[in-house]
Amino acid sequence: MAEIDEESDTDESTQMAAFRTDLAEDRNIMAMERTFAGWMRTAFAAIGIGLGFKAVFGAFDPPWLAKAIATMFILAGGWLAITAQRRACKTLARLNTHEFEAISTPNFRALAYSVLVGSIILTAGLWLLNDGTLNAAT
Q1: Are 118 and 45 in contact (CB under 8 A)?
Q2: Measured between alpha carbons, how far is 66 from 84 in angstroms, rounded to an integer?
Q3: The pTM is what?
Q4: Which residues contact 88 (CB under 8 A, 6 or more apart)?
């Protein structure tokens, strides 16, 4: 009879170990989602630094230098968003959820590509617009 109790204890112990492993995988997914959010904050900060640089040093001489530095930061923000999305999607492909539902991959892609497109449009506007009007060649 003692053997039966030991077997049931072993089965319960194995089940609990498997459950803890499943929860650990869920925690890894949540950590990946927090990391993605952190990278997106960094992307928005880079875009903000670019805009701030252009605003503060707009009358820089030569005038294209302030735009070039701002462009570097703004496009770096777009690149960071895409890089974060790719890493998040690769991680999600390797892990399986057990006790909760993870954010779907298309949501990561939609946000990252929106940031990229926005940074490209912002950069184009930075170079094409001057005080709200298009630069005239004449």
Answers
A1: no
A2: 27
A3: 0.73
A4: 32, 33, 35, 36, 105, 108
